[in-house]
């Protein structure tokens, strides 16, 4: 039976992760399309020994979501990708099924992995061989293979890989080497070194005509399955197909060590912090403060739009933002915040990414009373606790109006720095706190 979540439109993704690299906020047009079928295999059956963690890296969580879900979403948002086969180890099957349900992934089939990466990939490919009536999967023309631990792959690059695979039989992402490759003697001395400019690192994604890569796996040896690391090599050796190589962005790197998990989290946080929305009332003080925040946050590389309170439930501005600043003047209006929280819940806006909601309470009275304000806004704690269960991070900031222009400018600057920090850090521990700007 369909749940409420099945019927709602999923929020769009935050700005492309490329934007972090290039500084550009350009969106890739949503109408990219191709006229052949494409499916994806995500090998996720490894144990992540090199991280030194007990949890396999694909199930390590940041911002309340496991790494594997970010990678799945990178493919699932693309209209021309039909199915995603996720290959996991036996003891992770239940966890994977739970992840699929919790984050509402719709195109995923979970398949049992093997003892090496190549065995896992072959198991993923074999899932398309099941008789059609027994399976929801249709054999695709092109299959894209991508490590589950490379979460930042973009549509424009996948399109290049898919088209090149269709034309050439195989294609793969490459990057310039960052270190020189050397051969060592068995005694640990330098044997020889390779000319760095001549070589490239082979990365993922890789694309293949499905029949070609399947045949390569059917023919390959036990040694290939046990020790091989390169699918492109298999199609060359067993099918005579020379892959087309395409240089990709550095964000395709593979999460391998513990520090890579921190890097991935930072990239997601930075991307989420690119835009914010100030919800403001109609009074002069409120609109003036909203305008000032738009300017000061703009200098910190945040694109801020201002939306009047009466439009706050409009889905158009909600679906493109993960950060909201609600400005109130004098009257403390937790009811408005409650309504926003409800809207986020109804639109499932915080299922994939945490939403930051900041109440900025401006006191313009002659003699502001801290105790009265505290009493009026005291309920923010309970509301924040309730919101946190829905992945909404609610904070409050108090600001007293000052007449002196210079002091006022300083206070607004201070306020915008606190706001920017709350948005960038997305710290769940500080939710429900009232801060003083
Ligand atoms: N038996 C295996 C081994 C690896 N993989 C997957 O292949 C990808 C790339 O492999 P790697 O980075 O080496 O992952 P691990 O094998 O998990 O890491 P480590 O080598 O540090 O143990 C990962 O998504 C990993 O889950 C897999 O599906 N099945
Ligand atoms: O980059 C690759 C593409 O050819 C590797 O084969 C792939 O990512 C496997 O990683 P590892 O060798 O660490 O298991």
TrEMBL record:
Question: Tell me, what's a Pfam family for it?
Answer: IspD
| Residues in D-ribitol-5-phosphate cytidylyltransferase C-terminal domain copies | 274-415
Q: Which GO terms describe its molecular function?
A: D-ribitol-5-phosphate cytidylyltransferase activity
Reaction equations catalysed: D-ribose 5-phosphate + CTP + H(+) = CDP-D-ribose + diphosphate; D-ribulose 5-phosphate + CTP + H(+) = CDP-D-ribulose + diphosphate; D-ribitol 5-phosphate + CTP + H(+) = CDP-L-ribitol + diphosphate
What pathway does the UniProt record associate with this protein? Answer: Protein modification; protein glycosylation
CDD domains in the cross-refs: CDP-ME_synthetase (cd02516)
Entry's Gene Ontology BP terms:
isoprenoid biosynthetic process; protein O-linked glycosylation via mannose
A Gene Ontology term for the protein's cellular component: cytosol
Could you name the domain of life of the organism this protein comes from? Eukaryota
Keywords for the protein's UniProt record, in alphabetical order: Cytoplasm, Nucleotidyltransferase, Transferase
Protein's cellular compartments: Cytoplasm, Cytosol
Q: What's the EC number here?
A: 2.7.7.40
State the similarity comment.
Belongs to the IspD/TarI cytidylyltransferase family. IspD subfamily.
Instruction: Spell out the PANTHER family in the cross-references.
Output: D-RIBITOL-5-PHOSPHATE CYTIDYLYLTRANSFERASE (PTHR43015)
Q: Describe its assembly.
A: Homodimer.
* Function description: Cytidylyltransferase required for protein O-linked mannosylation. Catalyzes the formation of CDP-ribitol nucleotide sugar from D-ribitol 5-phosphate. CDP-ribitol is a substrate of FKTN during the biosynthesis of the phosphorylated O-mannosyl trisaccharide (N-acetylgalactosamine-beta-3-N-acetylglucosamine-beta-4-(phosphate-6-)mannose), a carbohydrate structure present in alpha-dystroglycan (DAG1), which is required for binding laminin G-like domain-containing extracellular proteins with high affinity.
What name appears for this protein in its UniProt entry?
D-ribitol-5-phosphate cytidylyltransferase
Q: Which organism is it from?
A: Synaphobranchus kaupii
**Organism ancestry:** Eukaryota, Metazoa, Chordata, Craniata, Vertebrata
């Amino acid at each position: 039976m369909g749940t409420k979540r099945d019927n709602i439109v999923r929020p769009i993704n935050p700005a492309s992760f490329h934007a972090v690299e290039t500084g550009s906020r350009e969106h890739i047009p949503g109408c990219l399309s191709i006229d052949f079928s494409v499916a994806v295999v995500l090998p996720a059956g490894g144990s992540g020994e090199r991280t030194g963690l007990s949890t396999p890296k694909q199930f390590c969580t940041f911002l309340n979501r496991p790494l594997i879900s970010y990678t799945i979403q990178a493919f699932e948002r693309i209209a021309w990708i039909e199915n995603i086969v996720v290959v996991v180890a036996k003891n992770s099957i239940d966890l994977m099924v739970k992840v699929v349900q919790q984050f509402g992934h719709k195109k995923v089939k979970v398949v049992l992995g093997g003892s090496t990466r190549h065995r896992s990939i072959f198991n993923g490919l074999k899932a398309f061989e099941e008789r059609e009536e027994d399976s929801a999967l249709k054999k695709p023309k092109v299959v894209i293979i991508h490590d589950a631990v490379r979460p930042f792959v973009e549509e424009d690059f996948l399109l290049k890989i898919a088209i090149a695979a269709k034309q050439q039989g195989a294609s793969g992402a490459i990057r310039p080497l960052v270190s020189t490759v050397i051969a060592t003697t068995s005694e640990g001395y330098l044997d020889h070194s390779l000319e760095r400019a001549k070589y490239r690192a082979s990365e993922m994604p890789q694309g293949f005509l499905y029949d070609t890569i399947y045949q390569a796996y059917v023919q390959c040896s036990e040694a290939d399955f046990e020790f091989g690391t390169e699918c492109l090599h298999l199609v060359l050796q067993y099918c005579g197909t020379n892959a087309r190589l395409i240089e990709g962005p550095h964000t395709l790197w593979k999460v391998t060590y513990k520090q890579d998990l921190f890097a991935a989290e930072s990239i997601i946080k930075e991307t989420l912090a690119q835009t914010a929305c100030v919800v403001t009332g109609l009074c002069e003080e409120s609109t003036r403060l909203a305008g000032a925040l738009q300017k000061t946050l703009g200098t910190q590389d945040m694109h801020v739009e201002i939306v009047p309170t009466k439009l706050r439930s409009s889905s158009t501005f909600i679906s493109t933002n993960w950060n909201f600043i609600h400005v109130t003047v004098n009257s403390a209006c937790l009811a408005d915040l409650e309504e926003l929280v409800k809207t986020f819940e109804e639109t499932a806006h915080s299922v994939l990414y945490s939403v930051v909601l900041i109440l900025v309470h401006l006191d313009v009275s002659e003699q502001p009373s801290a105790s009265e304000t505290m009493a009026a806004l005291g309920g923010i704690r309970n509301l924040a606790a309730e919101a946190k269960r829905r992945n909404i991070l609610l904070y409050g900031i108090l600001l007293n109006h000052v007449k002196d222009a210079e002091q006022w400018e300083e206070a607004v600057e201070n306020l915008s720095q606190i706001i920017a920090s709350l948005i960038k850090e997305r710290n769940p521990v500080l939710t429900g706190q009232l801060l003083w700007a």
